[in-house]
Amino acid sequence: MLDRTLVLDRLSKRFGEVVALDAVSFDVRPGELFGFVGSNGAGKTTAMRIVLGVLAADSGEVRFDGRPVTYEMRTRIGYMPEERGLYPKMKVLDQLVYLAQLHGLAPNEAHRSAETWIARLGLAERRHDEVQKLSLGNQQRVQLAAALVHDPDVLVLDEPFSGLDPIAVDVMSQVLREKAATGVPVVFSSHQLDLVERLCDRVGIIRSGRMVAAGTVDELTEGAATQLTVTAPQAPPGWAAALPGVHVVSENGTSTVVELSPGADDQTVLEAALATGPVREFTRRRPPLTELFRNAVTQGSEQ
After folding, report:
1. Which terminal residue of the chain, N or C, has fewer Cβ atoms less than 10 Å from its own Cβ?
2. What is the largest distance, in Å, between two alpha-carbon atoms of the chain?
3. 154 and 185 in contact (C-beta within 8 Å)?
């Protein structure tokens, strides 16, 4: 039985004195949505281009189904580049049929698949329009259709949600979930960390060409300091600042988020909140992906 996992194994790449990737490793499993996040210039696009064969790694290997990825295998990858690569004067339907045929589909099959994705992505009324006449959001939908039209075995998407309105984000999210549900590994980069957290099974964080974390959000937050959300309508600003072992993360109106040092007692926080009046909320809080990402980047810059 073949293991339809996409594996990036210790990829390294330099551009002159710049180290773009330094032994980067992670895998994307069958049926999994993997979010690949990092600051601008961290190495996300370089890694994706190596998977596609657009760039060659200085060392390391990309494997799929347990074998090194060859040119023939790469024709089975659906790729959505950050810098969109559509023909601006070509009509939507003609373009998708053409791209499907480049990936080996017969003309009739290419036409059927193009029409299917045009309908699925809400482009039916634009199917005979030139790409350059579409809104940026609709151009984005066409680019996704181009990545899907040949029924790929792997999806590699670089910033697929960039510039999309909320409805288009929902459509694209659903399409990616459906594709993953068929057993396809899906990896995408995004700066929209709330979306990554909501959509992805696992997340990888890259900083300055190095992978600094990978796992589910629960795994990445395991061992993080305990945080509490406390809503006390009558509490004055800064009410928790002097409590021992307590760090105030944020104050937003009547709601305060605090972080407890090891050994600190959450009941001390509750007692202090109750001393100000009624407490409407007192819950433990999991740090969001945004905080994990910020901490990973900050810790790296301080070393």
Report:
1. N
2. 74
3. yes
Taking alpha carbons only, the member of 155, 144, 173, 196 closest to residue 28 is: 155
Q: What is the pTM of this model?
A: 0.82
One-letter amino acid at 126 equals: R
Locate the domains of the chain by residue range: 6-217, 227-286
CB 82 within 8 A of CB 45: yes
CATH domain 6-217 topology: Rossmann fold (3.40.50)
List pLDDT tens digits, range 272-281: 999 999 999 9
For residue 114, what are the CA distances in angstroms to 96, 170, 245?
6, 21, 60
> Quick one: pLDDT at residue 98?
96
Residue recorded with tokens 């396809």: 184
Between CA 297 and CA 302 the distance in angstroms is 9
